[in-house]
Each structure stands twice: as C-alpha cells, then as structure tokens.
Amino acid sequence: MKDATDLPDGGHNPLDGYERFLKSRKARFQRVDADSITIDVEGHTLDLFWSEDEEALLCTCIMPMQLIEGVRDLAAPIFMHINRRQWLGHFDMTEDGSPCFRYTMLFHGNSGAADIEVIEEMTEIAMRSCEQ
After folding, report:
1. Distance separating alpha carbons of residues 38 and 35, to the nearest angstrom
2. Helix or strand or coil: residue 2?
C-alpha cells in the first residue's frame, strides 16, 4: 500500500507529518482527505489545505461566530479597512457568515520546507490575527 507522502512525482505532502504531530499531541482534528485537515483550537476552526499543483499551503482560521445577513454587509468595509493594514493574510467571510482569516504560503519546489514548525507558525499567525 502506498503512503500518502509518496506522491507520483516525488512531491511531499506536509500535512502527513503534521497529522502525525497532531496525533502525538492528542489534538482534536479530522483528516478530511489527502490534502486537508481540520483542527479545533480554542473555539476556532483551523482548516489547512495543501495544493500539490501550486506547491502552496493555505490556512483558514474560522472564528466561532456567525454574522446575520444584515450585519454581513456592514462587516465588508471593516474587513477591507483591516486588510489594508495586514502584512500577512486577509480577513474574509465564509458562506455561512462566519468571519475568517486566510493565509497562504508558497513553497515553489521546496515543499519539504513546509515542516511542522512552519505549519505551527502559520496556525499561530492565523490565531493571533483573529484574536487581534
């Protein structure tokens, strides 16, 4: 049986190592498919997505609230104002009205660099941005 880390073109899926790390920490997570993991952290939902084609790792941190439809329109200019000041990532809203922070890192031929420390740093940036 093939291991998920043995991709056809010799690529590397960083979520495989991160899944082992999460298991060792007894974290609450779900491996949705080969390219995505959902993690529960302090009431926030972190979704990590790996794109082999783009050689990119996307982290989405969904805040534990839903904005009602009338408030969503009011939130959009606030998100734009905040996003102009963001160095890394941006704020957005999920389809169901939950505010979220999205951050993507590109690895351009160096997917092996997307190790546990890099992924932890991504999740910390996302959580810190949401808390601010």
Report:
1. 11
2. coil
